[in-house]
Amino acid sequence: MKIVIDMNLSPDWVKVLDDAGWESVHWSTVGDMRATDDVIMSWARENGYIVFTHDLDFGVLLALTQAESPSVIQVRTQDVFPEVLGNRLVKVLQEHQASLEKGALLTVDEAKARVRVLPFG
Predict the structure, then answer these.
(1) What integer pLDDT is reported at residue 110 of this predicted model?
(2) Alpha carbon distance 19, 47 (integer Å)
(3) What is the pLDDT along the chain (121 residues), one digit of tens a residue?
(4) DSSP labels, the chain
(5) How many CB atoms lie within 10 A of CB 39?
(6) From its phi and psi, is residue 66 left (phi > 0), alpha (psi between -120 and 50) or beta?
(7) How does 47-82 read in b/e, with b if 16+ C-beta sit within 10 Å?
């Protein structure tokens, strides 16, 4: 599983995800820091990456376009730093890896995780 981390999340997430066994890159190292969500989504789809973000717009894009990919991991917490959310996110990703590899929107907060399979019906 390959994950591209959106600009609204710390580059420190790369180490957390890499240590858990997934290939990850922060968007700032592969694309224009001012790129639109559409550009990031297209890049992720073309390169086989899952988008990891704190931005709710990615879920909206999936719904509006009825896209089957890329998968999106969306965190919905105030404190999105790896030191706070890292262990929880790794556990949730391990539980839902198969769905993410097929195409899904995974929403994670402090208490729960929700998976919606793509495309939305």
Answers:
(1) 87
(2) 21
(3) 999 999 999 999 999 999 999 999 999 999 999 999 999 999 999 999 999 999 999 999 999 999 999 999 999 999 999 999 999 999 999 999 999 999 999 999 989 999 999 999 7
(4) -EEEE-TTS-TTHHHHHHHTT-EEEEGGGTS-TT--HHHHHHHHHHHT-EEEES-THHHHHHHHHT-----EEEE--S---HHHHHHHHHHHHHHHHHHHHH-EEEEE-SS-EEEEESSP-
(5) 13
(6) left
(7) eebbbbbbbeebbebbeeeebebbbbbbbeeeebeb
The residue assigned the tokens 């890049």 is 43
Residue 100: partners with Cβ closer than 8 Å, 6 or more residues away: 1, 50, 71, 73, 93, 106
Structure tokens at 93: 């990703």
Q: Fill in the amino acid letter for 27.
A: W
Q: Is the pTM of this model over 0.90?
A: yes
